[in-house]
Write a structure and sequence with these properties.
With 261 residues, the chain is mainly beta. 13% of the residues lie in helices and 43% in strands. The chain contains 3 helices and 18 strands.
Length: 261
């Protein structure tokens, strides 16, 4: 049998599809997929001749649409009563992170949940109120473990710890997290539809003090504070007894001193 009109042999491809019981239907099915149905060349993909649209390409597009449909159907909703800090939800078609939430039960009327949300695409924050128990779609984001390597122009370069491939992320996406980046720093990159939208470092980090006023003997944590520059360049307030060369623990979410390292 001759290959389907307009197709030429290209490369070997194994088809894993349902086989109709009728032999003629099976051959027709394989021909529509662009696979040579003859016994001699069975399993050979047929590449469309110039100017022709490949049936295989159409099948691939259909498979991709089916995948997107399954992905959408697997999307989970979450009750506003179960909101927690750090949760990513979808609002008006965009991913948001819950920064603050408060469950309110007024004396009269229905209970509600007041939230502060951060748009992970723009970085802007907004306040939003939800009915108690209201179902909200959980954003289908992907968390990828990476390691910071270096900065170049307006980009930060990270290495994917699974594929070991480098990926450039714009400084606008890295945002304030850049203040805590040091070579070899592990980070978590949030992706939305395959695009990086947020870079996070651990909530607690131990960093060395590289610049601060000399400590005063006898001062305690309750005796006041002073600015100190840490090894990544960030400046925080530390107790008066902290000196250059010491290590301190920092809450990277708020930029506050926690304790000596």
């Amino acid at each position: 049998m001759q290959p389907a009109p307009g197709f030429v042999n290209a490369y070997t491809f194994r088809v894993g599809s349902v086989q109709p019981t009728d032999a003629r239907r099976s051959l027709a099915c394989r021909a529509r997929l662009g696979v040579c149905p003859t016994a001699k060349t069975r399993g050979t993909v047929l590449r469309p001749a110039p100017g022709r649209t490949s049936a295989l390409d159409a099948w691939r597009r259909q498979s991709h649409r089916a995948y997107q449909h399954r992905r959408h159907s697997l999307r989970m909703d979450i009750s506003s009563n179960d909101f927690r800090v750090g949760l990513t939800i979808e609002v008006d078609g965009s991913p948001f992170k819950v920064i603050e939430h408060l469950h309110v039960k007024p004396g009269k009327g229905a209970a509600f949940v007041r939230t502060k949300l951060k748009n992970l695409l723009t970085g802007n924050s907004m306040e939003r109120t939800f009915r108690a128990g209201e179902s909200v779609p959980e954003a289908q984001v992907e968390k990828v473990e990476m390691q910071y390597t270096y900065a170049e122009e307006s980009d930060y370069v990270f290495m994917n710890m699974t594929t070991f491939e480098e990926e450039r992320i714009p400084a606008s996406t890295v945002g304030d997290t850049a203040k805590y980046l040091r070579t070899g720093q592990d980070v978590s990159v949030t992706k939305w539809n395959g695009k990086p939208i947020e870079v996070e470092v651990p909530t607690t980090m131990t960093l060395e003090v590289v610049e601060t006023d000399p400590g005063v003997r006898g001062n305690t944590a309750q005796g006041g504070s002073k600015p100190a520059k840490l090894e990544t360049g960030v400046v925080i307030q530390v107790p008066l007894f902290i000196n250059v060369g010491e290590k301190v623990k920092v809450d990277t979410r708020t930029g506050t001193y926690l304790s000596r390292g």
